[in-house]
Amino acid sequence: MSCWQLSRKLLCGSLLIVLLSASTGAQQAGGGKPSTPPEITFINFPAQITADGARTLGTVGYRDEESDINLARFEVLQSAAFEDFSFDPQIKDPVKGTFDFFIYSKLPQTVTLSLTLFDSAGNRSQSKAFTFTAVSPAPTQPNNSLFLYEWGADLPSPILLDQPQGVVADSQGNIYVADTGNHRILSFSAAGKLRFVRGRGGVGDGEFNQPQGLAVDSRDNVYVVDTANHRIQKFDQYGSFVARWGVRGVGLGQFNSPAGVAVGVFDQVYVADTDNSRIQVFDANGNFLKQWGGFGSGAGRFQFPEGIGTDREYNVYVADTGNNSIQVFSPGGEFLRSWGGQGSEAGLFSQPQDIAIDPGGRVYVAEKESRRVQIFDQDGEFISLLSTLGPDFERIHTPTGVALDPQGTLYMVGRDGELMQFTQDGRLLSELSGPAASLADALQAPLGVAANASGNIYVLDAQNHQVLKYSANGALLVKWGGPFAGASAGLFNRPAALEVGSNGNVFVADTENHRIQRFDANGNFLQQWGRLGEGDGQFKAPAGVAVDDLGQVYVSDTENDRIQVFDANGTFLRKWGSRGIGKGQFNTPKGITIDALGLVYVTDTNNHRVLVFDTLGNQVAVLGGFGGGQQEGLFQYPEDVAAMPNGDMVVVDSGNHRLQVFSQAGVFLRALGGLGTVPSSFNLPKAIAVDGDGRLIISDSGNRRVQLFGRL
Q1: What is the β-pairing status of strands 56-63 and 553-557?
Q2: Predicted confidence (pLDDT) per residue in 243-261, tens digit
Q3: Can you give 533-553 as a three-state secondary structure string?
Q4: Minimal CB count within 10 Å: which of 73, 94, 467, 641?
Q5: What is the spatial distance between Cα 443 and Cα 451, in angstroms, rounded to a whole number?
Q6: How far apart are CA 349 and CA 321, in angstroms?
């Protein structure tokens, strides 16, 4: 193995040593003295470093009467990965001083180096040895800051809610529910499919203690009143944590059991600070702006307000629970009007808990004790009553939360765990607290994934022998093939990979049928080619497919241990590869992708490496190493690879249950994941795709789900 000197840097295999600086002592060399060899006074370097590529600093102390040290030679006495090397420390004049260097290692190993200093007269110092050990980094923990959402895993049936207290809809019609007793937030699509579940009991970011009120801003960010933690938490529309603010107290920006939240003009956040009997206002980042209220029963005073909402003019409506009234304020907090009073008659209240305003300005008030929702105009004139004693509405025992989506559909949660969807006049549309996904839509063995230019996501479910197309947020749009294996056009037998071309056509590696099938974006069959064999255009269990900018189709002909290339119509163009461990050879190639420079990346799965080729099949680089491993930069049965918009490469390191990220030059950058079932962990992940926004789509096959992550 050789070393390279770049400026003042030395690169040797997995070890890097760099001269950083030289500092001087006060003494200077005198003239006419006999030539004496330089002396190493000390070497300071840690006994243990982490084999993660991070730089570790060391220092050398020296003495040299002639001030002419011109070479520092490090000889390797013990190592697994690099050779001897030398450099000029570039010392000027000093008799004694120090110079610094740093070392990094990417491989776990014990290293012993011997340092010798030389001067211009050829004198050499006594050699001085030092030893350090590079140890494997701690197991990678799931990175939930990048995780967006998942779908396809087996879900509890029915979804059981425990005393839900809040519900809200975003601009896309997605529904968010505060499952108060379970200390979590659930989100459903407008069609009633469960999008994600977030949270658990606790005080950390994304953890809750009896969450209640919910609100959504103009960008569909979601604000959660984390009531018993006395704070507000903010999430994006996919459930990723963004920010939090507040602690228990009576000061500005502090809370005491807040229960309600609403968003108004300029995305200002209004919080019903319940046990402090006031309203506090913040900007979207949690910076305090103003407050009003205080305990009392007059205009602008409150007794434990719980619900809060805003109308089209951003006026603020407060459910003043203890005073059994609704109070209305301008966006700046000026009192405008109120109505109500204690009672069971129309227009009176018995502990109003939540409030919502529809696009037409009608005001919906949910009451704790009267088991009803009353509807008013924006001036407080009673319009109608939705009673739990009515024919449809009776299925909610005690309404605790109310919301309306942009189309005016009414959503309500009840104390006994109900989540239901109604028309504005109270006619039941659906019951969303039941199963979130039917067995027909559940994923059994997700393998290939791909994304089109519109952000739609395609998933191959090998066990169900079908392709499923989802919207960008996981709502099922269409599926084709299956549920049983078949050999006719449009049917599949354990398909393993798919890709979307620039024209929207979907190419499927129909693995056990030994062919490629081409479909339009909605699953209409267009073409097929290939059959079992070893000739040109024939396949044996193809398990990878990619399409370049010219429309050429690259196929991992897996059990023939080669790559075949076709034009967009399936005409054979060229091939490369054979079985082996040498350059350009494969052992079960699977995943394949093409980057913006036209380089072709192939996961050489059973050789535990990724090979890089030009478009003609000439190998230009390799990632990983034969034999595999658990260390960063090594793989265990890599299954797929994808190119990021910035040129980085992401490898699905399936046997290590993780993703590994490399620069375009092949330098390891980071790892994500680890074995598990929680979001951001994996169990034998199989495939990866990158959508137009740079989000990562992962088929987490062992967990029977697809996970979506934000840009790295």
Answers
A1: unpaired
A2: 999 999 999 999 999 999 9
A3: CCCCCCECCCCEEEECCCCCE
A4: 73
A5: 17
A6: 9
Looking at this protein, which amino acid is placed at residue 154? D
CB 496 within 8 A of CB 509: yes
Closest CA to 543 of 476, 484, 497, 474: 497
DSSP assigned state of 342: B
Per the DSSP assignment, residues forming a β-bridge with 565 are: 554, 574
Query: What six digits make up the tokens of 672?
Result: 């994500």
Q: Which of 455, 444, 438, 459 is nearest to 698 (CA)?
A: 459
| Non-local CB neighbours of 548 within 8 Å, separated by 6+ positions | 554, 594, 598, 615
DSSP lists the bridge partners of residue 111 as 132
CA angle (437 as vertex; 434, 440 as ends), nearest 5: 130
pTM: 0.47
Burial of 108 (C-beta count, 10 Å sphere; 0-12/13-18/19+):
middle
b/e 268-286 (16+ beta carbons within 10 angstroms → b)? bbbbbbbbbbbbbbbebeb
Tokens of 602: 């192939």
Tokens at 72, concatenated: 């520092």
Residues facing 147 on adjacent strands: 709
What b/e string do you get for 476-496 counting C-beta neighbours within 10 Å, with b at 16 or more?
beebbbbeebeeeebbbbbbb
Tell me how many degrees the CA angle 171-177-181 measures, rounded to the nearest 5.
Answer: 165
> What is the C-alpha to C-alpha distance for residues 302 and 278, in angstroms, rounded to an integer?
7
The pLDDT mean for the chain works out to: 83
pLDDT single digits (tens) 262-292: 999 889 999 999 999 999 999 999 999 999 9
SS3 at position 555: strand
Alpha carbons 710 and 712: distance in angstroms, whole number: 6
Please report which confidence band the pLDDT of residue 434 belongs to, taking 50, 70 and 90 as the band edges: very low
Return the structure tokens found at 3.
């070393």
- The pair of structure tokens assigned to 177 is 């529910």
Q: How far apart are CA 114 and CA 117, in angstroms?
A: 10
pLDDT, one tens digit per residue, over 109-149 is: 788 989 999 888 889 999 999 888 887 655 444 444 455 55
Q: Which residue has better confidence, 45 or 394?
A: 45
Q: What share of the chain is helix, strand, coil (3-state, %, to 5)?
A: 5, 50, 50
- The candidate with the shortest Cα–Cα distance to 661, out of 694, 626, 683, is 694
Cα atoms in the Cβ-side hemisphere of radius 13 Å centred on 319: 32
Q: Which helix (H) or strand (E) holds 422?
A: strand 419-422
**Residue 226 backbone phi and psi in degrees, to 5:** -90, 80
Amino acid identity, position 78: Q
C-alpha–C-alpha distance, residues 505 and 488, integer Å: 19
Poorest-pLDDT segment among 30-39, 163-172, 304-313, 587-596? 30-39
Please tell me the distance from the alpha carbon of residue 81 to that of residue 92, in angstroms, as a whole number.
33
| Max intra-chain CA distance, the chain | 112
